[in-house]
Amino acid sequence: MTPRFAVVEILVADMARSLAFYRELGLALPASADAEPHVEHELPGGLKLAWDTEATVASFTPDFTPPTSRGRISLAFQLDTPAEVDELHDRLVGLGHKSELTPFDAFWGQRYAVVEDPDGNGIDLFATR
Q1: Three-state SS for 94?
Q2: 30: alpha, beta or left? (left if phi > 0; alpha if psi -120 to 50)
Q3: Final residue of a domain: which of 41, 63, 85?
Q4: For the chain, what is the domain count?
Q5: Are 78 and 102 members of one domain?
Q6: What is the β-pairing status of strands 74-78 and 99-105?
């Protein structure tokens, strides 16, 4: 038996708010998913990104307490140009999301920024310079 990495799951307080954020990052998530307790989205290559509400996890996890500290995962989204990093960062911040790192030219050759999703997870935005 060989385990296969297949899914990245995100614990969310508000499904609709979280999915709206990820739609801004280009994921085609149907509006009907906003009211679901669990949502999966297949990415190119077969890896899945999934969201579970705190209530869903509490339904099968005894003594579940949602984390109160910042997020524990980070996802990275690649853009085509450095200007697109700046534009997407500014759009997300304009929608009320917190900027963790404003766009900058990183020493490793990327235009790079980090915005938090509604649950405090760091979302990296980058493009090769």
Answers
A1: helix
A2: beta
A3: 63
A4: 2
A5: yes
A6: unpaired
**Over the stretch 60-109, which tens digit does the pLDDT of each residue have?**
998 999 888 777 788 999 999 999 999 999 999 999 999 999 999 999 99
Q: What's the predicted TM-score (pTM) here?
A: 0.88
């759009």: which residue's tokens? 91
pLDDT 10s digits, 56-74 = 999 999 899 988 877 778 8
**pLDDT for 83:** 97
Exposure of 63 in the CB half-sphere (CA atoms within 13 A): 0
Asked if 126 and 76 count as a contact pair (C-beta separation under 8 A), the reply is: yes
Helix (H) or strand (E) holding 18: helix 15-24
